[in-house]
Automatic annotation (TrEMBL):
Recorded GO CC terms: cytosol; Golgi cisterna; Golgi membrane; trans-Golgi network
Keyword Transit peptide among record annotations: no
Top-level lineage group: Eukaryota
Compositional bias of kind Basic and acidic residues: 13-43
Keywords: Golgi apparatus, Lipid-binding, Membrane
Organism: Euphydryas editha
UniProt protein name: Golgi phosphoprotein 3
Membrane topology: Peripheral membrane protein
Subcellular location: Golgi apparatus membrane
Length: 285
């Protein structure tokens, strides 16, 4: 995916009425939110939170995630919710006078402008078409297909890992192979661009070792989200394993500090991404 994908292109139009003006303002907000994802060196491969978490979980040579990891599925759905939140597409309903908790507040579609990512747009459409709205916890379950309500199974996002892996193949990070596992053949996606993987691992390590990460009011939202989501998807250890004993202990201590935060209080800070804190709360409750 090149740098311009995911941006919403908008023609300059003369505002004729208030609704047109509101629509134009939404488009401007979407551009600013998408730029948060798209900024940086144009030569560097840009990855979504979902792609980053999957890449951390994939075995480099084998090209598949651990068979014992039963957390990555829900973790990737959390990535989708936060990615949509950071791009300004969804938000939580107002807390109201009674100060509803993060896990009690519904997810509201703020803008239905396409993101340029098929998975994100599919999830966004489900949220837009759902009335009444649902909570973050419910959406993680629905998008994962982990619900007892048969009426909600239509919201399941299928083959998410395979679709994300194909995105990474298109970006030149992975390749596609067939491997035989005695009774069946399986499509795998071994690593081809080690530079991207090393850069990602280094990014996670530096985020955890950076003192400012625990000062969440000033921490980079994407770095914070990546750390917490990697932990929730049980792939964080893959990034921390190469660290020295001293740095490993410091990194894990910083992550524990983040897990011990009062998510409700953090969500009340100015410029906080409330849906991000709601996802954190859902995974740590």
């Amino acid at each position: 995916m090149n740098r311009t994908e995911g941006l919403v292109q908008r023609r300059n139009v003369v505002k004729e009425n208030n609704s047109d003006g509101n629509r134009e303002n939404h488009d401007v907000d979407d551009k600013k939110s998408d730029k948060n994802y798209d900024d940086g060196d144009s030569k560097e491969t840009r990855l979504t939170l979902m792609e980053e978490v999957l890449l951390l979980g994939l075995k480099d040579k084998e090209g598949y995630t651990s068979f014992w990891n039963d957390c990555i599925s829900s973790g990737l759905r959390g990535c989708i919710l936060i990615e949509l939140g950071l791009r300004g597409r969804v938000e939580l309903e107002r807390a109201g006078m009674r100060r509803k908790g993060l896990l009690s507040r519904k997810v509201i579609v703020k803008s239905d402008n396409p993101t340029g990512d098929v998975l994100l747009d599919e999830a966004l459409k489900h949220m837009k078409d759902t009335d009444p709205p649902e909570t973050v916890q419910s959406w993680i379950e629905y998008l994962s297909g982990e619900t007892w309500n048969p009426m909600k199974l239509k919201y399941q996002l299928k083959n998410v890992r395979e679709r994300l892996a194909k995105n990474l193949v298109e970006k030149g990070v992975l390749t596609t192979e067939k491997q035989n596992f005695l009774l069946f053949d399986m499509t795998t996606h071994p690593l081809t661009d080690n530079v991207v993987k090393c850069r990602l691992v280094k990014k996670v390590q530096e985020a955890a070792l950076r003192r400012s990460i625990v000062d969440v009011a000033h921490a980079d939202k994407r770095s914070l989200a990546l750390l917490m989501l990697a932990h929730s998807a049980d792939v964080l250890e893959n990034a921390f394993a190469p660290l020295s004993d001293e740095d490993y202990e410091l990194a894990t201590r910083r992550v524990r500090s983040l897990l011990d935060l009062d998510f409700e209080a953090e969500a009340m800070r100015p410029d906080a991404c409330e849906i991000m804190w709601a996802v954190f709360a859902a995974f740590t409750k």
